[in-house]
Amino acid sequence: MLATLQVILPAAVIVIAGFVAGKRVLDTAGIKALSDLVFFLFLPCLLFRSMASSNFGGSDVAMLGAYFGASLLWFFIVALFVRRRGEPTPGAIVLGLGAVFSNTVQLGIPIQKLAYGEAGLKLHLSIIAMHSLVLLTTSTVWLEVWKTRQSPNEHGVARNLLQVVKASVVHPVILPIIAGLLWSFSGFPLPDWADQPLGFLASAAGPIMLVLMGAQLSTMKLADHMRGAFALAVAKNFAHPLIVAAACWAFGLPPLVTAVAITSAALPMGNNVFMFAQRYQTNENAITAATAISSLIAIVSLTIALSVVPKP
Hints:
By secondary structure, the chain is mainly α. The chain has twelve helices and no strands.
């Protein structure tokens, strides 16, 4: 538990700094401008660099199948459930993403390395490599398809399909993922003159997203969103790892692989969900509150996961 606290507390300090900035420096327009800067500059650099520098040759295919199969199943269950209860489709997609998208980098890397050493970290990095590709791409395509169906093109199905493909691919999340994936498969290393500035810009994404979360918290009444936020945090921190555990058992995965997959799922909600909600201007406050609660109760969910998962 102490190790988890040591990783979570620095992030909490940055969120508090963002909260103060939201009260004293950033108005609504400033928050929106900073959010756009992250979404169109820092986040694409982070996604491209992560994908371009990933080595997919050593990935454990069975683990990825179990982890992302279970995650997508839970994503659709949550999204369809809340939509059936009256939530508009964009909001339902955002909530579904919140139930499965983990903080795999800032929190996941140090936790996995502390718990399972280099062997566990290597497996976790394979999850990171596919994380945004699978979950953000699925969410984006579903949302863009919904947007196109709301305003169908008069030129017919083919034009509508082309519009969906264009909106889904030429997108500040999907395009850098695809470009990075293609670069990774090319086998060429990123040249230093490109990798260094990309690294600087990518490293700014995480802290600024935490600042934005704090600023968003300063504009809302947290108590108004507590019930839904707590339910979503429980769905992320506790239900998600249980479903991943069932998938690992069904796949017959070895102990270390199972442990890494379950621990990844027990991580709190990732900051990219907040950026996704802000981009589509839906459920921003609910996701902000849920991310805060998810990060707090991660101390419990990670402690349980690390205690009960099969020992490698």
